Amino acid sequence: MRVAVAVPRRYWGFLEEELGLVKTIYSDIQCVVKVGKPSPGTYLSSERLRELGECGFEKLVVMDRLKPVQVVNLARELKRDVVDRVMLILEIFAEHAGSKEAKMQIELARLKYYIPLVREAVRYAKMGELHGFLGAGRYGYEKYYLMLKRKEARVRRELEELRRIRGVRRKQRIESGLPHVAITGYTCAGKTSLFNALTGLGKPVGPEPFTTLAPKSSRVAYRDVCFILTDTVGFIRDLPPEIIEAFYATLEEISSADVLVNVVDASKPLERIRVELETTRGVFSKIGVHGKPVIVALNKVDLLGDYTAKVRDVEGLLAGNEELIPVSSTMRFNLELLMEALYRVLRGGTA
Ligand SMILES: Nc1nc2c(ncn2[C@@H]2O[C@H](COP(=O)(O)OP(=O)(O)O)[C@@H](O)[C@H]2O)c(=O)[nH]1
Ligand SMILES: [Mg+2]
Prior knowledge:
Helix content: 40-55%
CATH architecture of the largest domain: 3-Layer(aba) Sandwich
Strand order of the largest sheet: 6-7-5-8-9-10
Bound molecules: guanosine-5'-diphosphate, magnesium ion
Strand content: 15-25%
Number of domains: 3
Shape: globular
CATH superfamily of the largest domain: P-loop containing nucleotide triphosphate hydrolases
């Protein structure tokens, strides 16, 4: 799917990270437009809309929270589907959700967000200008709206039922009984690159999905240990408040982990690394994994000439349960060392 991306001013300084978020779902970014001042009706000014006219894209991703009327106006104007930052993040969550409960929680968040949109679309429906928008297709928006409302009620009921049966924060046990290692970190830190490199290194044993766990997991054998490695959603800067609940649902895979690998981008300024480490610890303690062994994979050291000073600085920020290994996932540097550290922790040593 070829997409165009609109980026508001407050993310211009985080452009790479925001585009990284888009690439999690849409790998083919055709063009990027910067939005200085959003216009109330269509979000994009007529100038920006003209700019987009020259870009061959199938979907517009706006890295901002849009009002329902803006989504609908944009879709009418461009005759293409429009997704905003909240919807994009919910798509990312949906892709990572493992358990039934997490899936339902995310589905509920999506419905809550979509219903006002569709209500807005109903107002335009008779004009026949929104064909196919939001997947309404030939059913028409009125029916689509009612269908979503019914679905929302059903998902809410089922979720309550599920929670009643299992208790809210049940202890999750992995069906295989294997230890579980979760890779976490901010968008673009290199989680997926590290996941791919490590599963390649430790001969993954079959890509079969672990149904009770996240879909992005692989069994890894290294020396005489075998463990499950999971690539998580990780942390997203500036998470919209209405989807925090859904975010916590994606963290199940972290809360059931025995060891965490926290991927940190070494090329970021030390101050940003400090804030990210602190935020991460805050979330860990909220979901009850405080004190578990954490291996901080200081990634992308290939981008620094001499990385020893950065290693020393970041080491100065570590807590007692954290250990730092400088790595480069793409250059495959120090991956053996990281695997050895994991091995030691999994065999019962300390981090
Ligand atoms: N130079 C360099 N780039 C890396 C490294 N690891 C990942 N990247 C790049 O960083 C970007 C984000 O990587 P990705 O694995 O998708 O990050 P994720 O969002 O944490 O899963 C990609 O463009 C990668 O090629 C590394 O060790 N060195
Ligand atoms: Mg990733």
